[in-house]
Structures are given as structure tokens and as C-alpha cells.
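The record is given unchanged here:
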Amino acid sequence: LDVSMDMWSYFHTCLVSIWLHRFYIYSAVAFGISLWIVIQLTTTRTKRKVTEPGTADKLGNGCPLPQAQEVHVAGVKIFYGSQTGTAKRFAKTLAEAVSSLNLPVEVINMGDYDPEDGLAEETSSRNICVFLVATYTEGQPPESAAWFCKWLEEAANDFRVGKSFLQGLRYAVFGLGNSAYVDHYNTVGRRMDRWLWMLSASRIMTRAEGDCNVTLSKHGSIEADFEAWKTKFLTRLQVLCKGEKKPCNGKCKKGKCKSSGKQSKESSDHEHGTSEHETTEAEELFETSSEEEAGGTDSVIDVEDLGNIMGHMKKAKVLLLEGVWNVHGVSHSGYHLVYFVCQFLQAKLNCLVICPLFSGYKLIGSHSGVKLCRWTKSMLRGRGGCYKHTFYGIESHRCMEATPSLACANKCVFCWRHHTNPVGTEWRWKMDQPEVILQEAIEKHQHMIKQFKGVSGVKAARLEEALAVKHCALSLVGEPIMYPHINRFVRLLHQHGISTFLVTNAQFPEEIRRLEPVTQLYVSVDASTKESLRRIDRPLFKDFWQRFLDSLKALAEKQQRTVYRLTLVKAWNVDELKAYADLISLGKPDFIEVKGVTYCGESSASSLTMANVPWHGEVVSFVQELARLLPEYGIACEHEHSNCLLMAHSKFQVDGEWRTWIDYSRFQELVREYERSGGSRTFTAAEYTARTPPWALFGAKERGFDPLDVRFQRKNKARDISGC
């Protein structure tokens, strides 16, 4: 017992001593840890000194051997687009030079490469991508590079693709051209360089250009131009191999790379009659603010106020389009005024400087347009169709997106064209005949479809089917119902066996009443109260609210399929359930589409941000709450990828099965009988319904994606800002 007491007393004494001297103990431990860290750092630095460039562990060219700890350049991929073989020959020559640096190198024909799948992988591969591309006839890319360039252009100008989509990809561009063709000299190389930059890829050096015109070539021939650039490229490559971080020696701004000093002079563009400064100034004048300059000028063109922008147009004419626009002869009424508007849009569409939001448009006559929908391209490749395919059974690859009127009577805050189309309250265009519009629309649509021949992943059978247009979405842009000959145009479409999906913004009630049967008639219901409609649609008509209500009443009089299209904008119109229910009771639509707003990028015309885009779960919750207020409607379908749901009237649920799909053959029979009878033989929506497949129904595991297709997921999906 005494021994135990002694041990406890000793132990207690030790604890007290440790506690009394705890400060010294803490200090000793901290000193020990610090000493260990210093030793580790010293050892690491010593190891690094042993492996620095210039020692036996490094090659003379500055590139690390494979056993180096960090690889700054994993390899080089050389892409070429060639018509006569010159770019291909240069690519092989460059590959041999890169191989001499003990770097992996791959030569790729752009025609054999799928940029949609492949380029995204290069953002993290640590490869250097080199693009050698020629400019062919009329400033177009070679046939082998046509799809590569088309995809790159659309990705750069598509608001659905994030601006940082190619962030991390390092590249250099060498263009091949002939300065004898002044208007199109090296345009493909310049545009490719710009598109890559717009997607946040990093230049490793200033774009270079080879000139086949020996009298103006910098080095006497295109071969000499290439050799001079190749030397600079190899030098730059060796610097990158050592870990150089600076992406480019030049000052990059707005898609152009301008180096300072001597290098700038050596790498400046050949304009041969048009200086780089003039071209840049012209670009800045005509580009909308949405893609690159959030603080730019609003690009809305009010037909009523067109005279106020004449001074701006005169400057544009001098800088870019002299000889194309006859600005001085423009009057403020009638044909001349309207022709000027068309020319303005053509400039945005077809000039060297292309407005990003109008990219891909094909203008028709004075006031119409056609464009290839991204869902058409998706379905051509077996990657799924649009929400209309899920809800109504259209074949997305056979759908033509068009409009007979580019003008609109609203300036909606979520306008996906950022108001680059003209606006007005009445028709002031030189009238184009419906036959001309339809013929050109089909021809231009087919031409765009044919460009997909040979593109990787495109299904041959669907490509062949796509040449025969079966559906027309009259919702491209503007207000189609403003076109005075809209009934003749719709009849022509039906006579060609083409179904019609017409969208109106509910500002022209009398035109809705006069409209002859279409396959499906939409009204955009973007808000449910007068004040919210004023804020969201920003209509031009002073009596917009009465026009809106009258349009809904006119819709209720229609016997064919009718649809309300609701676009939800978070913090703007998602809390108006009761008011929406009242409007639905007024127009009695057959269907109600509810879709989350699609973010279209920054714009001075709108204050919307990604924060205003509702999640799909929020859209579902809104629809479920709305359905509780509308006992005659049920939730029928869902297309998750478009953030969209469909509510349908209970009359389209027969024997417990939804019949939201359309029997298109039956519709064509009915509309032919209607026309032959002079309108006396009417028909109703119930006469051309079809059963909705299980995969399209709300609650199905497919979430609206057709199981016959394969869903495509981008490998760097996080870069994608929205899906619509």
C-alpha cells in the first residue's frame, strides 16, 4: 500500500511539473517541427537543382525526358484542312520537325475528326494543337475542313455553349491563302483563330499567314512563309516545354492578337487595301454586345425610329459596306425604308463580320429567314430530338425552322436574339410572295442539311430523310402572323405535306381570328398580369394588355390544336399561379407548355442572369402547383433536357392513355378536305390525335428522351451554361 501511495505521489508530482513548464514544452515541440520543415525544403531544393535544364537529365532542346516529374507539353496535334495538298504537306513537314524534339506528334485531317467530341478533351490533355488551314473559293474552307469550321463557328456563337468551353486548350494557327483575292485573303484562318479565342482557348503565339502571291509574300513564297513561321513555332514550343506559362507574346483583345514591337510588324495581317485597324473598327461597329461587350449599345431597331440611326449607318457604309448600302437614297416610308432594314440584317448575316446571334441564318427576300435548329443536327446524329418530338411526335431531323417576318412587336427580356431583329407594330416591308419564300426556304434548308454529308456520326438514313421537309416551326424569330399573306403561306406548306407549328406573341388578335387552320397554334403567355407583362415582354403597343387578352379569347375560338407557352423567369413571373390559372380559363388551350427561361448570355438589352434560370425541379414544382388549380388539365409529358413540361386537357386522355401526339397523315387529309370545301368542312383537334409513347410521359425513367437514340454527354459538361 505504501509503495502504491509513493508511486501515485511521484506521478502526481510529474504531472504538476509538466503543467507548470508547459510553455517550454510547447516551444520545444514547435522548434522541432520547424526544424523538420526546413530540412525537408532544403532537401527538395537540392533535388531540383540536380534536375535543372542543362544537366545530363535534360535534352539540349529544353524538353523534359519522359521521366521528368512534370510534363508541360505532352505532345503536339497538327490539324490540317487542305484542298490542293499544300496544308497537308506543311503538316507532315512540321510533324517531322516536332518529332526531332522527342515529342509525340499526330497529324489529323480535319475531315476525319469530330471536333464536338475531340476538342473538349484537349482542354486537359496538355497537348499543343496546331491548325493549318487554307482559304478556298469565295473565302470558304476546303471541303475536308467545312464541318470542322462550321461546328467551331456555331459553338463560338451559341449562347448554350459556355464561353470557357475550350479553356485550357493551347493552340497556334497558320493560314494559307492568296492575297490576289483581296476580299477573302486568309479569312478561314483568321476566323478559326477568332472562334477558338471566343471559346477561351489560349494562343501560344500570334496567328501567321502564308501567301501564295509571291509578289506580296513576306518571304517570297508561301513555302518560305511557312518555314519562317515553323522556326518561330519550334522555338516557342521549346520554351513551353520548360514550363513557360505566358500563352502569347502579343496583346490579345476581342479575338485579335496584336504583338508589340517588331513581332507585331512581322505578324500583322495582309489586308491589301483594307487595314487591320479598319477591319477591327468595322467589327466593333457591327457586333452585338451580348458575346463580348456587355456594356455596348442596345441593338434594337425600331421601325418607327429608324431615322435616328442614319448617322450610325453612314459610318458603317464607309467602313465596311460601301457600294452595298445606298444610305443616302433612303426615305422614311414605303419600300426604300424597308429595303434598308433588310440590308442591315444582311450585313449582320453575310458580311465578313457576322453578328453572333444571327450566325447560321439564311435571309430570304426582304423579310423572311430560315435557320437550322440544333435539334435537327442532334437527331441527324442519333443524339435525341427536341421537346416537340417528345410531346407531339415530330421528326426533329425533318423540321425546318423559319419565319416570314423577322420583325416583332415586343422586346422581351429573354429574347434569344438579344433584339438584333427589327421591331414594329405594322407591316412596312416590300411584300415577297409566299411561293418565293417557301421555295427559297426549302432550298436553303436542304443546302444546310447537305453540308452534313460525311460528317462523323451522322446517320445516312436520317440524312436522306431530312432532305424531305415534313414539319415547319414558324417560330424562328419575329412575329410570323404579321405577314399579310400568312394564310397563303400556310396553305402552301400544307400542300407540300408539311405540318405547321405557328407561334404568336399575343399582340395581333384580329390576325389570329383570320388565321386558317394550322397543325398547332401557339400563344406566348410570358406573364399573367399587366405590370409583369410590361416588364417582361416590353411590348410596343400602348394597348398591349387588351390586345393580349383579346388574343387569348381569339385562341379559344379555334377548333384545331392550341397551346399556351409559358416561360418561367425566376424572380419575375413564377409567383403568379392564380393569375395564370385565370388566363388559362380565358383562352381554354388544349395544351400548356411550361419551360424554364434559357439564359442567352449577357446583353445590354436585358438584365437577366443565370440566377433567373429555374432548375428543372423548380419547373416541375410550378407545374404541379398549377395543375392543382386546373382540375381539367393533367401533366402529360416531360422533356428534361429542355427543362420543359407539357400539361394537356383531360379530353386528350382517352381510356387512361394520353394522346398528345399528332397523326400527321390524318391532319393532311383533314386540311385538304377543308380547303376543297372552301372552309365549310371544319375539323377539330380530337380528329388527328395519336397515342403518346410511354417513354414520353411525365414520370417515365427516360425523362422524355427517346430510347431509340443515344444521349450525348459532353465530357466537360460543367462548361456548358444551359441546355434548351
Remarks:
- DSSP finds 22 helices and 24 strands in the chain.
- The chain has a mean pLDDT of 78.
- The two ends are 85 Å apart (CA to CA).
- The first strand starts at residue 75 and ends at 81.
